[in-house]
Amino acid sequence: MTKIIVLPHEELCPEGAVIEEADIGKSICENLLANDIEIEHACEMSCACTTCHVIVREGFDSMEEADELEEDYLDKAWGVEPDSRLSCQAIVADEDLTVEIPKYTINMVSERH
Known about the structure:
alpha+beta; 5-stranded mixed beta sheet; 2 helices; 5 strands
């Protein structure tokens, strides 16, 4: 089974979280939402915004590379790093992942802001 470790995030999971049995073939975003980690996804996971941006601290190379559209949106995200992905597009493979959800998004209409 593939595991996703979510590093602590002040609002979404202050103590961090471990998803022991992540669904391979589903996105990081889908896995987080299915495990009560309410990551923002303003475009409903259609790769049309950057609110689900995550930084994959471990296991980055196990996933398919980002396509051009995802790369274009990542250029607009807050706090992008070389191992950043849009969690709605990053499909979980057979290697454990450690992800960090950035503190901020550029979503100006979020109900949490």
